[in-house]
Amino acid sequence: MKITAGNPLERGKDISLTNARDYLLKLLTENFNGYVCATIKAKRGIEEGVILFHNGRIVASSYAYFKYLREYQAEPAMERFLNAMMAKTGVIDSFSLSSYQVQLVMTLNEEASLKNPIDSETLQLPNSYTTKYEDELAKKVVAETGKQTQIMKNLGLTGYLTGVTKEEIMKAAKEEDQRIERMIK
Fold first, then answer.
1. 7: buried, middle or exposed (CB in 10 Å: 19+, 13-18, 0-12)?
2. For 129, which of 44, 86, 108, 125 could close a Cys bridge (C-beta 3.0–4.6 Å)?
3. 75 assigned to some structural domain
């Protein structure tokens, strides 16, 4: 999500020590203008969701899976964000914005706008964190990779990949995961 820098309210709040419902309801009832970012360590990597508040209503959302370079917008992102708020490992950052800044963010991110903004009466959080969204994405990526490999075979382009073993690729991926984990600690 393209978002302007705001005034920090909270930075690095431990998600496991936060009552997600109370936290979000407080912002909704205070007619908050700004955004909340939840960054979690999931089963396969780092995920980050952002929700945008305008006059005490959640009006937009985006959610990114860094390992898979995938981002969701609007309702699918909102589901994932609320799920992330139930995670055991992660942090929450919140920033206030002026009404004008919120409108600017909404204009720059029309694809992230919710069809039905969420208020204190319509907020529904899951009972617990689930990995189903991440698991579904992992399966989708594996299927897409298989299709890409088959296309490369059909075009006779697989010879360009010789010399790189599966083990080398796996080792590089593990090193990258470790590097990212060190960065967030």
1. exposed
2. 86
3. yes
Distance of CA 38 to the CA centre of its chain: 7
Report the alpha-carbon distance of residue 49 to residue 91 in Å, rounded. Answer: 11
Per-residue tokens: 140: 């989708």
Quote the CA–CA distance of 86 and 130 in Å, as a whole number: 8
**Angle formed at CA 13 by CA 11 and CA 15, multiple of 5 degrees:** 140
pTM above 0.70, yes or no: yes
DSSP annotation of 45 reads S
The verdict on 99 and 141 lying in the same domain is: no
Residues 123 and 155 in one domain: no
Match 């981002």 to its residue by tokens. Answer: 71
Domain residues for the domain of 149 are 134-184
pLDDT 10s digits, 61-76? 999 988 888 899 999 9
Q: DSSP assignment, residue 18?
A: S
Q: How many domains does the chain have?
A: 2
What's the confidence (pLDDT) of residue 122?
A: 93
